[in-house]
Write the structure tokens for this entry.
Amino acid sequence: TGQRVPLRNWSETGLLFGPYQGIAQVGQHMKATVMLRNGYLSMGFEAELEIVRSNDGLIGAKYTCADPHVRQRIKAHFRA
């Protein structure tokens, strides 16, 4: 829907974001552009999401990124 939603937390395989103003049901798949900007990291990537939790506007999702260079960068970030 093109809406911007704050990213609350992330890991090598998952995202927590919200508040999300839309319908997100467990098992639903969606595409997202993930933008990360903090004192340590600045990057953006396209991701495929699978919703695993939805509660009070907060959404938990597993994600995959098709770009191998971005996947490598994410791995390196979490293993540093």
In short: The mean pLDDT is 93. The longest strand covers residues 42-55. Strands lie at 7-10, 14-17, 29-37, 42-55, 58-64. DSSP finds one helix and five strands in the chain.
